[in-house]
Amino acid sequence: KDVQKESEPHVYLSKEEVKEKIQSYNSSVTDKLKMTLNANGIYTGFIKVHLELCRPITVQSSQSQGRCAHSNNEAAFYLPDGCVNTLHISSTNTVREVIEALLKKFFVADNPAKFALYKRCHKEDQVYTCKLSDREHPLYLRLVAGPRTEMLSFVLREHETGEVMWEAFSIPELQNFLRILDKEENEQLQILKKRYAAYRDKLEEALGGVWKPG
């Protein structure tokens, strides 16, 4: 289980320190996703973001796949587990811009305010997560941590239930969510009915064996 961790203070690096860190970073890269330092001091590179979304997302119907509930030209569906996306960004891009870029890449019509970007790291046999503020710069965090994803990885999630901005959802979105929840509730109910029917059959069979005349 993830352990929540407070955000660490931002340490500003000089241009020379950035150059040295980029050289060190590139020498350790194993997937060819290196960083590039430009003459103006801005650097570019890649980050991988794990998509861990519990609620359905809304996309254009022509782009939707899998189980979905349609509404006009949009559809709500669940992303499969284990989705990872790679983004090419610059050191000036903020968390909010990264979230917007991810949603645009997946043709997601949902309001970016519904989502949050987390950083995840492993330390002393614990997995720590920390929600990043909209003003933080993910590529800087990637540079400081190095290219190893076990040292730092990024995760896109919805805001916690208590933080959900329900007013950011449109009426068709909410109706889609309700239809999906109703369908899942019925599916789970049928599974439970079959499970308990099987238990009842086995119990009756066992009772029949006990009371069967010898």
Q: Please, could you describe this protein's structure?
A:
The chain is α+β, with helices and mostly antiparallel strands. The chain has helices at residues 15-28, 95-105, 138-145, 171-211; strands at residues 3-4, 36-37, 43-51, 57-60, 68-71, 74-77, 83-90, 115-123, 126-131, 153-158. The chain folds into 2 domains: 15-59 and 73-161, Roll (Ubiquitin-like (UB roll)); 167-209. Strands 1, 2, 3, 7, 8, 9 and 10 form a 7-stranded mixed β-sheet that branches. Strand 2 (36-37) and strand 3 form a beta hairpin. The chain is elongated. InterPro entries: RA_dom, RASSF1-6, SARAH_dom, Ubiquitin-like_domsf. It comes from Geococcyx californianus. This is RASF3 protein.
List keywords for this structure.
214 residues; alpha+beta; Ubiquitin-like (UB roll); 2 domains; 7-stranded mixed sheet; 3-stranded antiparallel sheet; 4 helices; 35% helix; elongated; RASF3 protein; zinc ion binding; zinc-finger; cytoplasm; metal-binding
What's the architecture of the largest domain, going by CATH?
Roll
Radius of gyration: 24 Å
Count of discrete structural domains: 2
- Which CATH C-level class of the largest domain is it? Alpha Beta
Individual helix count: 4
Largest sheet: 7 strands, mixed
The best one-word shape is: elongated
